[in-house]
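notes to self, project folder thing:

trying the whole complex as one job this time. last attempt i did each chain seperately and stitching them together was a nightmare. two parts in total, labels are on each line so i dont mix them up again. if this works i'll redo the older ones the same way
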Amino acid sequence: MQDARLAAHLANRIAFGPSPGDIEHIRELGLEGYLDEQLDPDALPLPPQLVDQLRTYPTLDQDSMTLLVEYGPIFKRAETGKLSKQDIETIKKSARQIVVEAAEARLAHAVMSPRQLNETMVEFWANHFNIFAGKGLDLYWPGTYEREAIRPHALGNFRDLLLATAKHPAMLFYLDNWQNTAPDSPGARGRFKGLNENYAREVMELHTLGVDGGYTQADVIALARILTGWSFLPRGGRALMVKLGMERASELPNFSFDESRHDEGTKVLLGRSFEADGLAEGEAALTMLARHPATARHISWKLAQYYVEDRPDPALVAAMAKTFEKTDGDIPSVLRTLFTSARFRDPAVRGAKFKTPHRYVVSAVRASGRTPRNMLALLGTLRQLGQTPFGCQTPDGYKCTEDAWLNPDAMTRRIAFGIALGAGRLPLDSPPPPLDDRAAIMREFKTAATNKTAEALDPERLIATLGVAPGAATRSAIDDAPPKMKAGIVLGSPEFMMC
Amino acid sequence: MLRRDFVKYAAAAGLSILPVGRGAFAMRNPDGAQKKLVVVFMRGAVDGLNVVVPYTEQAYYEVRPTIAIPRPGAANGALDLDGRFGLHPALASIMPMWNEKSLAFIHASGSPDETRSHFEAQDYMESGTPGQRRTQDGWMNRLLASLPGAHSPTQAVSFGPTLPRILSGRASVANMALGASAARPLPSDRAELQPLFARMYAGDDALSRAYREGDEAHKKLMGDLKADMMEADNGAPPAEAAAKNAGQIARLMRDDRSIQLAFFAVGGWDTHVNEGSSEGQLANHLKPLGEGLATLARGLGPVYDDTVILVISEFGRTVHENGSGGTDHGHGNAMWVMGGPVAGGKVYGAWPGLGESELHEGRDLAITTDFRAGIGAVLGDHMGLDAAALSRVFPGAAPDGANVAGLVRT
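result (full assembly):
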């Protein structure tokens, strides 16, 4: 590839920005070669620094029910009866560690993994199928949700991804479907008394068809009825856990279909009749939604907005939607249509998208070439900027547009972060505090800067890494800056705010 | 003093943060009496029927067997407002404002749009144009542009990590995170860096404007907030965060009279499950909010007499409780209106009733007052907007103001 600017564009969009050496690597492979490489992530080994970092997170490879058992109140409650406020605080404090580990692991992957397209897709899909770690039991499951439902399908098939999220306890709890019960069913008692339409509505509005997808309130109710009984603990699950004991409680499945709470009537969803057919009925309904033309358009539009521009080109969206339908929701095929399109390669879109806070922070650390061991400065900055992983309360997830993120305060804080990173004043290498303290530290995060912990970055190396020479105003500001501040000027420049 | 310094700085740096045609900054009288508006958005759709409780409606108790608030006088009962409605007991902290007649509610109000999507409904309530998805800016931003006189960089302030839809648009708005970190110096505050950044962000593009406005607002707020004052907020437990933050907002608005519009959002109202009654989830969220509003009212001091605080939410919740001890997305809600200029001690609006035939689509509280009528009354009678300006803030709306006549003392 002759064009260094195109290589930089690929690194800025397909990846979270270039690391040292990436521009040369992409120029060598060319667009098609780089796409082929990135669409086969398993062939790219993870670097030892990343593997070592991930090993510092003990909850990262535990399954959902194990985490609930080990960090949850179930056994403590079985032992002592009613829990005191103090007990609950202690339990919550240790459980918050899980969220911190999951968020740090996400950032570690984003900064250090060579599987960059996979990582941008993980960010995209985890956000598209958003869950919020601050809601009840979802405290335990942000990491398992990402690992079990999102990562396996990030570059897979859309229907598989939809079903994996639909059946994950994190989603079942977040959008309340675990309680969704046919009102007159034999299982309708206690907390399982009636219909809860929360998930049914959001899965059509946000996950599949889109708000203009042509469904009505009657369709929401029909889908809610179809999904009655989709839950995560079998009836009496808590008691069963206690009976199995700490050792074997994790044998409980992530997903459980409670036939006794299922609606046995006939439902009509989007004009199609669904006879009562247990679990298969919901799977068929979600499959129908995954294959709906409105879904193909909605997903294509969101992908184009994420990877290309805030107001996507209708022709590109139509081409992607066509691929989506033709390949039955094969995500790599849709991405190939996107990245090989004329619009994606159009010089007019290069450097024209305002980075989200997440992309700004990750791209800055990637460009620095530093290997972070201590993620607190990154998470704390993201908290100030309003975009921590698993921290979006509402199911529509974070926006990825300039309208949402460009504001005066954000500029001030980004520049402060860039200056601190450039001057070697972020504590990226210092030993991180104990895991169970990190949530509190992050909450009270005060400023990006500490005393000097590393050498200032070399501005010329940084510019070479980015692959594009800065404009005249930025160049002159770099030249006039004190030596240790030069790299910070690059990271705080208008050019680096964009991708 | 601060303003003079700022003007001097702006002149020395050769840049103007003023959008074209807004008049000269220094001509404004900085300490002149200014009408102020604070908007609090309860994101997630608060259950207005459990906030302003229609306790004389038998139907209310029939369809809410476990979550209804008991009648006034009963154990954990509602706090009687007017013999017909009662306030959630967790909001006892704002009863003094009701009693001194600076707190009112507009019941059965909301957005006429049918949507039960949080995001769409919030979007409409923030854009001020229900049903119109293409509106780019928020109504508070259009309001800011409609206010007479010159504009300061902190005339409109959003408190929170990001700029909300309601304040986004062409007029510039300051945005500040709340809490202890707000007033600390940043590594980029070093004097030798200032001219370098000013050079990079000298253009008229959106990024440059945002940078310059952020820089001005940061300097100004740094001056306004004394770091030692902020230390008191360190380590505040999260449950009290709303109250603490309200105190911070009040001090800022009292000490910096150029802040005319303020906004913050509070979350956690989407009570599909285990909503609770006089105690429980909803109560746990209402209590700190009520305390925060009381702190805000007290902390504003004399400025309270020139301030109206509006508390809004995107829609109400189902009249019937659901199978999970909660409520689902509904329609009509109650708007809270507080402040010195408010003719309070009264529940405004036209109560539609809770009978089966009186409900919206047979399930939700009907809307008899468009939210733009309630807000419009405040903008007209308090902020002094004329009909033309009002129609810029809420284009295409001609909501009937009869239900809110007399809401603001004139």
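what i see at first glance: The radius of gyration of chain B is 22 Å.
need to look closer tmrw
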